[in-house]
Write a structure and sequence with these properties.
The structure holds 2 protein chains of 2 kinds.
Chain A: E1 25-34, H1 47-61, E2 71-74, H2 80-89, E3 104-107, E4 113-119, E5 121-129, H3 134-149, E6 156-157, E7 161-162, E8 174-181, H4 183-187, H5 191-198, E9 203-206, E10 219-224, H6 232-260, H7 263-278, H8 284-299, E11 303-304, H9 308-317, H10 320-325, H11 336-347, E12 352-353
Antiparallel strand pairs in A: 1-5, 1-8, 2-3, 3-4, 4-5, 6-7, 8-10, 9-10, 11-12
Helix pairs in contact in A: 7-8, 8-9
Chain B: H1 2-14, E1 32-38, E2 41-47, H2 52-59, H3 64-74, H4 86-90, H5 99-103, H6 105-114, H7 146-161, H8 165-180
Antiparallel strand pairs in B: 1-2
Helix pairs in contact in B: 7-8
Classes of the chains: A alpha+beta, B mainly alpha.
């Protein structure tokens, strides 16, 4: 297994979040899940059949006009670090590490599209977006999916809709996720009330690593709970509705914190800054938590020398695979936390605390 | 490394897929984290307490055959096309093929209802009535642009109700930007 090859060699250098200056809505991800008619789902398929599917899908998909210079990457051709890089890049909740022979990815130059082949389902079409463009992203993805559907027949039943390996995803096969960074609501303790107030049973909340209880970097992930018995438009619009309200609540909470010049928040921000600047080694989760407060501090003008865009980029880049991709030399496992500290120090060298 | 090889042998014997099924697929709460280090690759798998895969990896013996027999006494239901058993479905393992949806029809619906994965109104649905609504293969759809406006208006009403005029003004600006120039999408995230 290739362990330390540079992940960026496979991926386009374009990162959708490198010019992402959003204070709250970090990103969204839209996924359509499809299987191909007459083939068993990947869990019951041997490697040869899986390879057939890869060539079948890639032959047609690589020629589609909606994709910009697409490439096919086979599971066995890339190392675990590159797969982890993909997971981080596409905020994936799947364990792409499983991808071996018979599994593959199609990526394109936009850096926004990931098509995974044969990991649990034959095809997962996924687009990420950092501009709060849920509806347009969904439409773009539907175009890709229907165009491929002209040459490939998807597994479908009138009763259960599009059929998926996980029965709780059949029907539309549509999974929409919205990533919201809410330091204001989380640290003023009102987040649970707000979620209860605005969330209905059609949506669910988790943290960035998929755990429903562990919130990392003050980011909550909102996702549709139903894929069956609901239209795609309804899924997208219920996420749009909830997100619009939470954006309003968070910016209202922040405005209050700034207006009151809250000592508690100043303390939190100062401590977070101290951790980022003075740690000798730092774990990703601790760094992400501190970065969220740093972002709040920058917005409050308690900190100068950095803007949202730079903090968002740092937020993505200090996770393991992205961090390692910055270095040409091989980094030992035990050195990573120190390298992360060094990297953060470098980015924050001109940042000063004003309070 | 040795562990890995043992697993491959087993897989062949049992005619399981080449890759061991990952327990992160299962919907039960994770109680163990199984960490595997091969060379420099480190993979972590979350597993639930009564995971058959965990037993297999730890002790190298699959208790699956025993379980299957026990299960068959009670149910015996399996998909004739891919061999997926009712038992494996109940543990939360992925479905094997599209035929499974016909074989396990009622079971799937009741499982989804108990895990609250379909809207509650489906309860009364008869066997022949489709549950799926929306697109079928080959159909394309455009999003109604007014949905975004509706969401903003709802949020605006909320701010006005609590007299938060600062946020209301921000929302009004966004609504204005959308209605005056619907082609151009204003920078959101605020």
């Amino acid at each position: 297994m290739k362990a330390n090859d540079n992940p960026q060699s496979t991926l386009s250098p374009k990162k959708p979040w490198s010019d992402n200056a959003n204070p709250i809505w970090l990103a969204s991800s839209v996924t359509l899940i499809r299987n191909i008619e007459k083939y068993k789902f990947p869990g019951k398929l041997d490697t040869d059949r899986k390879k057939q599917i890869i060539s079948l899908v890639s032959k047609d998909l690589l020629g589609l006009g909606e994709l910009f210079n697409p490439i096919l990457v086979k599971g066995e051709d890339i190392g675990f670090l590159e797969k982890e890089f993909l997971v981080e890049h596409f905020l994936s909740t799947h364990n792409l590490n499983q991808a071996q022979a018979g599994e593959g990815f199609i990526l394109d130059a936009s850096g926004e599209l990931l098509v995974t082949l044969n990991l649990r389902d034959h095809i997962h079409f996924q687009l990420i977006d950092c501009k709060g463009e849920l509806e347009n992203t969904w439409s773009r993805l539907v175009k890709i999916e229907t165009n491929l559907g002209k040459t490939i027949s998807y597994s479908f039943s009138p009763k259960f809709g599009f059929l998926t390996a996980d029965p709780t995803q059949c029907g539309t096969g549509l999974v929409v996720q919205v990533y919201l960074q809410l330091p204001g609501l989380i640290h003023n303790g009102t987040i649970d009330d707000m979620i209860e107030k605005h969330l209905d049973e059609s949506l669910m909340i988790s943290g960035i690593q998929g755990s429903p209880t562990e919130i990392i970097g003050d980011v909550i992930v909102v996702q549709n709970n139903y894929t069956l018995g609901i239209t795609e438009e309804n899924i997208v619009s219920s996420l749009r509705n909830f997100t619009t309200k939470i954006l309003m609540e968070e910016s209202s909470a922040r405005a209050k914190i700034f207006r009151e010049d809250s000592s508690d928040f100043k303390d939190k921000v100062s401590r977070a800054f101290g951790i980022l600047i003075h740690s000798y080694q730092i774990e990703a989760i601790e760094a992400l938590n501190a970065l969220s407060l740093l972002k709040l501090g920058a917005e409050a003008k308690w900190i100068k020398g950095i803007d949202n865009q730079q903090i968002n980029e740092l937020f993505f880049n200090c996770r393991r695979a992205h961090l390692l991709a910055q270095f040409k030399d091989k980094i030992e496992q035990e050195e990573i936390t120190h390298k992360r500290s060094e990297y953060i120090h470098k980015i924050l060298k001109d940042v000063t605390l004003l309070i | 490394m040795v562990d890995k090889e043992i697993q491959h042998d087993e897989n062949e014997e049992e005619k399981l897929p080449d890759r061991p099924l990952e327990c992160s697929e299962c919907k039960k709460p994770v109680s163990y984290i199984y960490t595997e280090i091969i060379g420099e690759a480190l993979t972590r798998t979350g597993m639930c307490a009564d995971c058959p895969e965990l037993q297999r990896r730890l002790h190298g013996t699959a208790q699956q055959t025993d379980r299957k027999f026990q299960g068959e006494k009670k149910t015996g239901l399996a998909c004739g096309n891919c061999g997926t058993t009712l038992e494996s479905l109940r543990v939360g393992l992925p479905i094997g093929c599209s035929v499974c949806y016909e074989v396990f029809d009622d079971v799937l619906i009741s499982e989804m209802l108990t895990s609250e994965k379909i809207p509650p109104r489906i309860t009364t649905s008869k066997k022949s009535i489709p549950i799926h609504i929306g697109r079928a293969p080959g159909e394309s759809k455009e999003m109604n642009p007014s949905l975004r406006l509706l969401a903003l208006n709802e949020a605006l009403n909320e701010t006005l109700k609590r007299e938060d005029y600062e946020q209301a003004a921000l929302l009004r600006d966004q609504i204005k930007a959308l209605t005056e120039n619907p082609e151009k999408n204003p920078d959101e995230g605020k």
